[in-house]
Design brief:
Layout lengths: L7 H9 L9 H8 L6 H11 L6 E2 L1 H5 L14 H11 L7 E2 H9 L1
Antiparallel strand pairs: 1-2
Function: In muscle, parvalbumin is thought to be involved in relaxation after contraction. It binds two calcium ions.
Keywords: Calcium, Metal-binding, Muscle protein
Family: Belongs to the parvalbumin family.
C-alpha cells in the first residue's frame, strides 16, 4: 500500500534520488514523491505516520529515520541531513517539528 496515497513508483524515484549519504533535500523529496501536491489532510496523515511516538511532534530521532517511513529498506539520514531538516522545519525553535511546521515544509 502506498504511503499517504502516494504512487509507489514516485516514492521509489524520490528514495533513489537521495540514496547517497548527504544527498537528501526535503524540497526535492516532497516534490518527487508527490506529497507536495497532496491535500492538507494527506499531509497530516503523513505527519501522523512519521510521528512514531504519537507525541504530536516529529523529533530528531524520528527525522533520522524519516525515509524508512516510505520504505523499510531506505537508509537513515546522516546527522548532517537530520540537523538541516530539523532546522528547516523548526520555525518556532523548540527543537521539534509540529504538524503545521511539517505542512509548511511539505508545501514549501
Amino acid at each position: 500500500m502506498a504511503f499517504a496515497g502516494l504512487n509507489d513508483a514516485d516514492v521509489k524515484a524520490a528514495l533513489d534520488g537521495c540514496a547517497a549519504a548527504d544527498s537528501f533535500d526535503y524540497k526535492n523529496f516532497f516534490k518527487a514523491c508527490g506529497l507536495a501536491s497532496k491535500s492538507a489532510d494527506d499531509v497530516k496523515k503523513a505527519f501522523a505516520t512519521i510521528d512514531q511516538d504519537n507525541s504530536g511532534f516529529i523529533e530528531e530521532d524520528e527525522l533520522k529515520l524519516f525515509l524508512q517511513n516510505f520504505s523499510a529498506s531506505a537508509r537513515a539520514l546522516t546527522d548532517k541531513e537530520t540537523k538541516a531538516f530539523l532546522a528547516a522545519g523548526d520555525s518556532d525553535g523548540d527543537g521539534k517539528i509540529g504538524v503545521d511546521e511539517f505542512a509548511a515544509l511539505v508545501k514549501g
